[in-house]
Specification:
It comes from Pseudomonas kulmbachensis. This is GntR family transcriptional regulator. Keywords: DNA-binding, Transcription, Transcription regulation. By secondary structure, the protein is mainly alpha-helical. It has two domains: 66 residues, Orthogonal Bundle (Arc Repressor Mutant, subunit A); 139 residues, GntR ligand-binding domain-like (Four Helix Bundle (Hemerythrin (Met), subunit A), Up-down Bundle), CATH 1.20.120.530. It is built from nine helices and three strands, in the order H-E-H-H-E-E-H-H-H-H-H-H. The protein has a three-stranded antiparallel sheet with strand order 1-3-2. Helix 1 crosses helix 3, helix 5 runs antiparallel to helix 8 and helix 8 packs antiparallel against helix 9. The radius of gyration is 19 Å and the shape is globular. The chain starts with 21 loop residues before the first helix and ends with a helix.
């Protein structure tokens, strides 16, 4: 008799979870498992299995899955339900165009309001990135650095949209940073961004951000071309 592999076997749930924490705990646990590859692309995520794993009703499970779908980590597929989304899709390049628009606006709103402690926090993330070798942690630090520069923007909807794009990029970085060979180069970009932010030179910040994101576009393009070349 063939034993079916349980895709959730790599997830450890420490319960019981208080009702008011169920949704964020499930969301964060699944997000981490997707980002670090324990739940690979195409894995079907069953609501009933998750509810049993975490010892909760289906309601917080459904809410968590909706949040992960909004972050482009899950897709709803006919007859399969929620599945882990592809690492990179053909529209990922369009996502980078949108990111530039959103993040440039966040810089305009946030940079004039940043305080010394914000710049120190950003510098700390750069220093951590210089020495970190764990690609998973590098992806997280990269996201946190950018969020620090945008954090004072008063438009919370804007920040939520930006976070979704950064999470999507974080997943790609975790799997492909070594092949991209961008580690030190990214830190040069980050230091230039921080330098312009300290000087309150918003237009220079935006120009540096555009250059920074263009490197991501080149990496995405290379990845997509490589995947197409593997197809029969």
């Amino acid at each position: 008799m063939t034993v079916k592999n349980n895709p959730l076997s790599s997830i450890v749930a420490s319960g019981p979870i208080p009702a008011h924490l169920a949704r964020p705990v499930i969301e964060e646990t699944l997000r981490n498992a997707i980002l670090d590859g324990r739940l690979p692309c195409g894995t079907a995520i069953r609501q009933e299995a998750l509810a049993q794993l975490f010892g909760v009703s289906r309601m917080p499970v459904r809410e968590a899955l909706r949040q992960l779908e909004a972050q482009s980590l899950l897709q709803v597929v006919q007859y399969k339900g929620a599945v882990v989304a592809p690492l990179i899709e053909d529209n990922s390049l369009h996502a980078y165009e949108l990111r530039l628009l959103l993040e440039a606006q966040a810089l305009r709103l946030s940079v004039p309001l940043l305080a010394d402690e914000d710049f120190e926090a950003a510098e700390g993330y750069i220093e951590a990135l210089e020495v970190e070798t764990d690609f998973g942690k590098i992806g997280t630090l990269n996201r946190q650095f950018h969020q620090t520069l945008y954090c004072k923007a008063p438009n919370k909807k804007l920040l939520a949209l930006i976070e979704t794009g950064l999470i999507e990029e974080e997943r790609f970085l975790r799997f492909n940073l070594k092949q991209m060979n961008l580690g030190k180069l990214c830190q040069d970009d980050h230091r230039a961004l921080l330098h312009h932010a300290r000087a309150r030179d918003i237009e220079a910040c935006i120009a540096e951000l555009e250059s920074h994101l263009q490197r991501g576009v080149k990496a995405i393009t290379h990845y997509l071309d490589t995947q197409k070349a593997k197809q029969p």
